[in-house]
Specification:
Largest sheet: none
Number of strands: 0
Number of domains: 1
Structural class: mainly alpha
Helix content: over 70%
Shape: elongated
Length: 68
């Protein structure tokens, strides 16, 4: 499945929001990143109707990272 620009933006927004919340709760950057990837993959799976594993691989392929 090819992700259009709008979907990539929504995935990145879900990631950023989740990471921000996790960091605000005192989680490490690594834990926040894992939470962000999981939340973004769940979002993509539900929006696109694809398998969770496929969604996770696509989200991981976007190269999202915790801001420094």
């Amino acid at each position: 499945m090819s992700l259009d620009e709008g979907m990539v933006r929504m995935i990145a927004d879900a990631y950023d929001e989740t990471v921000s919340e996790a960091l605000g709760r005192g989680h490490s950057a690594d834990d926040a990143h894992r939470e962000g990837i999981t939340a973004s993959a769940m979002f993509l799976a539900s929006m696109a109707g694809i398998d969770d594993g496929d969604a996770r691989r696509q989200v991981e392929g976007l190269g999202l990272s915790v801001p420094a």
